[in-house]
Write the C-alpha cells for this entry.
Amino acid sequence: MIEFIYKRILQSVLVIFLISVIAFSIIDFAPGDPALALYGGEAQQLTPAERVRINHNFGFDRPLVERYAHWFTQVLHGNLGISYREGRLVSLILAERLPNTILLFGVSFFLIVVLALYLGLKGGFNPGSGWEKILSAGSIIFSSIPSFWLGIFSIMFFSVFLQVLPSSGVESIHDGGDLLDRICHLILPVMVMVVTHVGLYARFIQEQVRVELKKYYVLTAKANGLAAKFIKLGVLRNACIPFLNYLGLTIPGFFGGSIIIESLFAWSGLGQLNVKATLTRDYPLLMGSVLISGTLVVTCIFLTDLGTLILNPKLRRELNQ
Amino acid sequence: MQRCLKSKFFATLLVASLMIGGVVSYAKTKASHQTLVYAAEFEYDLINPILDGSNADGLIFRGLMKFDAQNLPQKDLATAYTISPDGLVYDFKLRTNVRFHDGTLLTAQDVVFTISSILNEKVNSKIKPEFKLVKTISAVNASEVKIILKKPFPAFLDKLTLGIVPAHAFKDVDINTAPFNHHPIGNGPYQFEKWEKGQSLTLKSFKQYYRQPAKIEKVIFKFIPDGNQRALQLITGEVDLAFLEPSQVKRVASSNKVKVYQIPTADYRCLMYNFNKELWKDLNLRKAFNYAVDRQSIVKGILLGYGMAAYSPLQINAFNNPAIEKYSFDLTKAKALLEQSGWKLNKDGIREKNGKKLAFTITAPLTDEVRVKIANYLADQFKKIGAVVKVEALDWSVIKIENTDVFVLVFGSPFDADDHTYRIFHSPNAEIEWNFGGYSNLKVDEMLEKGRTTSDFKLRKQIYQQLQTELAADPAYNFIVYLKALYGVNKKISGIKLRTLGHHGAGFLWNLEEWSIK
C-alpha cells in the first residue's frame, strides 16, 4: 500500500515534469518574443531596432538550450522567473491568484459532489419515480446550458434586475474583504459552476446505483433479510468507486471550464491569468501558470486514486499480494 | 436515508446562509461617496512613466508640461522655460514647492533621472523612441534643467508632459523590476493607496498637492475584462465610468443613471500602400482605390455611426486643410483611372494588365476587430472595380508590415502636427520608425523638415496645409475613418471637460482632479 502511494507520487512528479517540458517546447516554437510581449496590442509601434534591444536585455538572443537550462535550474531553486510584462517574480504573481482559484474550485467541487451524491442516490434508489425522470431530463438540460450564457443570465437577474448580488470580482472594492463580502461574491460563479456540472455527475451516480441494485449480492442480502439500511450502505460504497474514478477523469476538463467563469466574473484566478499570459505572450508567467495548474490537476487525480484505494478492498488486496 | 437527510439539511443551511450573508453584505458595501470607480478593460502590468504610459499616470505623476483643453502643452512643474532660436536648447525653471507622495521635495535631479533612465539601453522602456532626439540632459542647479536636442523637434514640449519619478526610489535597484513599479510614488493629485492584483487599483487624493487638491477623495480602477460586464456595472452603479463599444451605447444610454459622451478622437484607420511592391508605384492605381471606398458606409455599418470619414492625417488638428482632395466615393472615377493605367476588364470581370490580374492581399491584426472588419468590407467593395482582394487577419507575432501588400494601420495624434507625420511620411532612413510602406516624396520631406524648424504658428500652418495637399495628390495611405470615443459616465459626476482624445479614447481623465460627485 505504502509502496503504491510512493509509486503514484513518483509518477505524478514525472507527469508534472513532462508537462513542463512540453509546455516549454510549445511556447518556444510559438512565434513571439519578450519585446512583442511588452508592446502587446501596440505592436505596430515596435521598431526592429527596439525589438533587438529589448530582446537582448531579456537574454532572448541566447540559444534555446542555454535558456532552457537557465529556466530549469531556476525552477529547481523554486524560482519561476520574472514576468516579461510586469517585471515581478512569477511566483509572487501566482501566489496572489492561487488562493482565489482554489477557493472557487474547492467550494464548487465540494457542492457538486455533495449535491450529485444526494440527487443521484435519491434517483437511483427510487427507480421509475418522478424524481428519477426529473433528474434524467434535468441533467441533460442543465449540462447543455453553456456556462457563459448562464453566467450572463444570472448577472442580469441577480445583479441588474434584483440588484442583490455583485456581478464581478472576488471582493468589494470599497472597504470589502470581510467574510460575508467574499461569500457573497462567490455565490454567482459557484452557482453557475454547480448548475452546469452537477447534473451529469448526479446522473452518473444514479446509473451506478441502478446497476448495483440489480446485482446478485443485493438480491442475496435482501433474501437473507438484511436491513435495508445496510444494503443501501453497501450499494453506496460500490457505486462510489466508479464515481470517484469518473471525478478523477473529469477534473482537468472541469478545471479548463473554470477559465470561462473566471473571465466572465472577473474572478482573479489562475484561469484568467492563463488567458492574459497567453494573449500577451508573457511566457515566463504562462510557464509558471501551466506548471501550477498541472500540479493542481495531478494532485486532484492522485487524491481520487487514493480515495478509490480506500473504498475498494479488492484493489488493496491485489496490491498487498 | 438518514445520511441523505443530513446532507440535505447541511446543503440547505449552507445555501441559505450564503444568500442572506451575501445580500446583507452587498447592501452595506454599495453605499459609497466621494469615490469614483472606473471600469478599466485591462489591468496595468506596472505603473512607471519611465517604462510605459497608462491612463493612471496623469493622476499619480505630473511632468514639466501638461496638456490643456486644446491639447496644447502648458507649464506644470515648470514655472518658466526658454527655447534657443535654433530650437535645440531647452531651459526649464522648476517649481520649488512640489512634494512627492512620500514627502520629499522634487528637484532637477529627479527630472534628469527620469529622462536619462528612459534613454538607458538596459531599461526596457516603450517610451524610448519618443526621446531619441535628446542629446544631453543636465541639472543646472536644484531647480533648473537644461536639455539639448540633436535636431529641432517642435513636439518635444508634448513629450515633456511625461510624469517625473523620484530618483531616490530607485537607488540600487533595476528599474525593470523595481518594487516601485507596483507601488508607485508620484507627485500628482492622487497618491497610490493599494493595488489588489487582478481586481482593482485604489488612489486617494494627495493633500499636499501643489495645486488645489482633487475634490473626489478616492479613484478606483476596477479591472473588468468582459465588455458586457463593464456596461452592465455602469447601469447597476457598481462602476461610475467606462469606455464603451458602439454596440453598447443604446443599452447604456437608456439607463437614467448614465450619460454617454461621444468624443472626437485623432485616432484614424487607413490602408497603407506598400511601395516595396511594384503595384503601388502607379499613382493612378492608388487614386482609384482611394475613390473606391465608401467611407460613409463604413462609419454607419462598422462604427455604428460613431466616427467620420477620413481624408487627412491632420484632420483633427489646428493645421487641418479642409480644401484638399477628399476622395469621396466615386466608382466611375475609380474605373476611369484604372483604364487610364491600362488595367482592362477581362471576360471574368477582373482587371488585367500585361496578362497580370489586379490582385492583392489586405492584412490586418487579428486582435483588432474594427481593422479586420474594415479589411473584409473593403475586399468585398474592391471587387466592384474589378480587383481580386484577399484578407489576411493575422497575429502580431507573424505580421511583418513591410512585407504586406496593403496593411490596415492605426495612427493619429491629438498633439503637435509634427509628431504623427514626420516619422510616418518622411522618406525612409535610419531615424524614421513608422514608414513601413517605404513612402518617399521629396516635396513631403522638405515640408516636414520646414515644419520642424519653423516656429511661427501661421507659417507652420501654411506648411502643414501644403503637406496635406501633397499627401492627397500623391497618396501614401487610403484614409478610411476617424473614430469617436464613447464613454458612459454616471450622472452624479460633474466637472468633466471634453477635449479631442487619442487612440482608444486616451486622455478622458485629463482633468479628473477637477471633477466632483453630487
